[in-house]
Structures are given as C-alpha cells and as structure tokens.
Amino acid sequence: MDSTFFLIFRRMRTPLLALLVTYSIATIGLVVIPGQDEAGNVVHLSFFDAFYFISYTATTIGYGEIPYALTGAQRIWVTFCIYATVIVWIYSIGSLIALLQDKTLQRAMEESRFSRRVGAVREPFYLICGYGQTGSGLVRALTDRGQRAVVLDNNPDRINQLKLENLREYVPALRADVRRPDSLLLAGLRRPNCRGVLALTSDNEVNLRVALASKLLQPSATVICRADSHAVEANMASFGTDHIYDPFDTFALSFATALRSPCLTRLSEWLGEQRGSRLREPTYPPAHGLWVLCGYGRFGKALYRHLREQDIELVVIESRPERTGRPDCPLVEGPGTEADTLEQADIHRAVGLIAGTDNDANNLSIVMTAKTLNPGLFMVVRENQLMNRELFDVVNADILMHPSLIVADRIRMLLATPLLTEFLNAARLEDDAWACELIDRLAALVHDQAPEVWQVRIDARDAYALFRLRPDEPLPRLGDLLRDPRDRGCRLPAMALLRKREHSRTLLPDPNDRLRDGDLLLFCGRPSAQFSMRWTLQNAYALTYVLHGESPPRGLVWAWLLRRRRERAAARAATPPTAPRAPTPPPEDCG
C-alpha cells in the first residue's frame, strides 16, 4: 500500500502543484483587486469568498457574481482565471487517466489487493506455485474438502481462468514469477498459518528454485514438488524437500504393482477415490505375454525399468534411439503409428500395448492402428494435454495415464490424509491375498460407494471427550470408537486401517488394543461413520454412553437429583429386607 501511494503522489506531483499554484494566484489576485459594494464603497473580497468564487468558476458551475457584482478589473482577472484553471484541470485529469492506465500502478494495486486478501485468510492454507493441469486439479480437490489455498502463476490467462472457476472456497491468486523470493513472501510464506508450499510447474528448474527458496526462507514449511528428472529429484532431496513426486515413476510403479498384485492396486484405487464417487470396476492387465512399448523417453524408461524387474517380455518401438538410448531388449526403430512398425514388433502375438510418446496425436494413431491389427490388446495410453480428453475417451483405452492428474491425486491424498500414504506404502509389503481379503471386508462396509477415509489423533484437540474422563479411568479400547453413539450395541460401518504409535506402525490394529495419548489412527468406512465417531470423540455424554451404557445428567439440577437417587439406593441396600419381593415380570416383546 505504501508503494502504491508513493507511486501515485510521485506521478501526480506536477499536476497537483500546477493546480495549487493556479488556484493560489487566482485567489490572491481576486483578493487584491478592489471591488465595489451596492453603495459604491471600495471593498476587498476575503480569502474565503475569493476561494469560494474561484472554486465554482474554475469548475464551470457558475453561481453568479457574489457577494456583489464584480467590477471591470475583477471580471478581466476572472476571465483569465477561467481559462487558466480549465487548462490546468484538463492537464491534471489527463495525467490521472494516464496514471490509472500505467502498468506499474496497476501491478502495485494488484499486489496490494492480493496481500490484503492473503492476510484475511485465518485458516491454514497451502501456497500453490503453478496453476497448470496439476495445480488446477489440486486446488479444486482442496477447496472441495474445505481447505484453503493461495495460487501464484506467471501466466495471466491461468489466473483469469481461476477467477472464473466455481470453487467452494475463495482462492487468492496473483500473476507473479514464482522464482522470485519476494513473490513467495507476498503470498504468505512466512505466515504462521501457511501449511506448506507446492511447486507444481512443468519446469523442473523452476520447481527446484521454489523448493530451495522455501526451505531457506521458512525452514519449517512442508515443501512438496513435482519433478520428472532423477538429477533434479536428487538435488531437491539434498536440502530437505519433504515430498517429491515423479509422475512417470509413480505410474510405472503403480502399473507394475497391478501386474503383480491386482488386489493391492484395486485397494489403492478404492481408498484414493474422491468423496461421493462410485466405485469403478477394476481393470487387470495381463501379467504374462508380450508387451509392446511405444516411446523410450522419460515415461518409457520408467516403465521399462519396473517391468523388466518382473521379467515381462518387452519390445520397444522408438523413432529416435540415438537420442533416447537403446534398451536391453528387442528394439524396433520407427514411430509406431504405421502398421509395418507394429508388425515388426510382433503385435499379433502381443497381449498389451503402451502408447507412451510425448505427442497425443501419435499416441492416438498408435492405438487406432494397433486395434486394427490386434483387437484383443490391453491398451495403456499416455495423455499429455487435458484438452484432448474427448478424443481419448472415444479411444476407450483400458488405462489412461495423465502425468498431471497422477501428481494431483497423490498430493491430494497426502494433504487430506497423510496416514493413507503411509498405509499404502506399508501395504505394498503384504501379499496379494492379504489385500484381497481386505477388499472383501471393505466392500461389505461401503457397497458401491467410494469409502470415506479419515484420520484421528488421540489428543485433547481431536479427542476432547477422551481427556474429560475421570483421572483414574484408563483410555478406552480401539473397538469402543467403532460403537454407534446412538445404539452402543451396534457397530459403525467402519474399520481401522493403521495405527501409528511413536516410531511403530501397525496395519489393521486389534480392536481390543487400549488407546494411548498421541496415537494416530486411520479409519475408512461410510461418511456417516466418520460423523458418528467425531461425535463420540468430542461429546463427553456420547462417550460415556458408548463406554458404560448410560448418559450422565446435563445440568446441576439433574446431577443433584441423580446423586440423591444414588444415596437413597445405597441407604436401602444397607437396610436388611423384611420380606422377599415377587419377581418383576419381563417386558413384553416389542417386535
């Protein structure tokens, strides 16, 4: 704001001085020149009357000659003042219009407005650098969950696109060079409610500079970066970048896992689905037979490395092997878009094809040609630009890979439920039979709806009611949290996936285990189960009912009455009975 005012006053200094000088000369001249009143006496106007007269005369309002008619000398002077002040006003207004169109002033006002809006954000927020395909998908996912975000991008079209988006939360955005540290500071990097910085541009060097600047300016900030180069990943990791996502390695690992453990892949997809979506039918790529890999660039090399570890038979098609290198498997030189090239790769014997070049038109052509030669192929297609989504939908590939969406989905899961990422990493060490059994249990809970995944920390904030128990009463068991607070005899449609305690992690913890202060728990189930569990953890009365089957009175009067009732019951128990009472008949069946 200070720079904005400084710029305005510096640019308007000459016009303002011209107005001040012109008005001063006109006013003083009108005071000095003598006039006559109605009786013919010589009088002089006061400074107030002279300034008032010049003010409405200079603005061409014209109230007449007041307080009395002017003399000839005064009218000559006023005539001169009219032309002088009109010229100065035209000059001043023109300077003001030019100033309002000045790019520097507009930029200063934009930054000032952006800074105020960021300062008005009181909730925790994430600073997202780059509003491309990855950033836009992540911003929508964050705002849908009620989380706040601040966006920086150097492309004005993307910032305008963000302003037109129909998001649940307002997202402050600024066109700025994210490589400049002052841009990060302006976006609130050092604010206490800044949860982390996400470098999501398509340029590795830009992401590297954002990560480095963030760690230097705010070492405690969580930094999440996108990188598709192993050299850049190593550089980011060297100065403590918290999370680095390579879309090609991420997809290659997921695809290799689908070949080896299809149930584990299905479990990952189910738990990673967005809230409110329906579960999709799983796709199982063939684990045996010949695979044709078109494109040996960054994506192709990542797939080649993971597939060769599983002894998958591969044939690679590459049009420029002198630039990409040659794999240690059969190689066919060519674009892959022609039938001759695919036939050389023995496409008729293949069980699957991966169209993984960096050109969407070539990938579509490869798929269409391969379908003509072998209609039974399992198709994996790389989509580079989201604008071509309708074309890829027509192709109807078995697996559609988009680098930006892969990164956005992984970061979304990390920010929404960090324990889910740890659970999936630990689950990869289990066999496929374990994952299949877990899928059956999960399907019985949620049916065809995507499961809700949430995490709970056993502390005074997330589990307020637990810490309101009597000091001599231990914390409840894990299974008690899965009781329905409306009917403790019923079980919530949810299950515990992971318990993190200090430096240990336990998959599918035992419901009979006693909770401890500081435990981190990961649950999944229906959305209603999450609401009921939060109610139990925050409401002492609901927790008491869940644990003991009774709800304590809510108020001083009811607490006094309950205490009196217990005292009378204790007194009756101390008095010996005079005669045995008849047994109370059982209640009638309501069923």
Look at the helices and sheets and give the structural class: alpha/beta
Overall shape: it is: flat
What is the third-level CATH name, the topology of the largest domain? Rossmann fold
Helix share, percent: 40-55%
Low-confidence stretches: 581-591
The DSSP helix count reads 23
Overall average pLDDT:
87
Q: Would you count the extended β strands for me?
A: 20
Rg from Cα: 37 Å
Largest beta-sheet characterization: 6 strands, parallel
Distance between the termini: 72 Å
Can you give a write-up of this model?
It contains 23 helices and 20 strands. With 591 residues, the chain is an alpha/beta fold. The chain folds into four domains: 2-101, Helix Hairpins, CATH 1.10.287; 122-245, Rossmann fold; 249-415, Rossmann fold (3-Layer(aba) Sandwich); 451-548, Regulator of K+ conductance, C-terminal domain (Alpha-Beta Plaits). The strands form five sheets. It has a six-stranded parallel β-sheet with strand order 5-4-3-6-7-8, with helices on both faces. The protein has a six-stranded parallel β-sheet with strand order 11-10-9-12-13-14, sandwiched between helices. A four-stranded antiparallel β-sheet has the order 15-20-18-19. α1 packs antiparallel against α5, α11 (247-260) crosses α12 and α18 crosses α19 (418-427). The two termini are 72 Å apart.
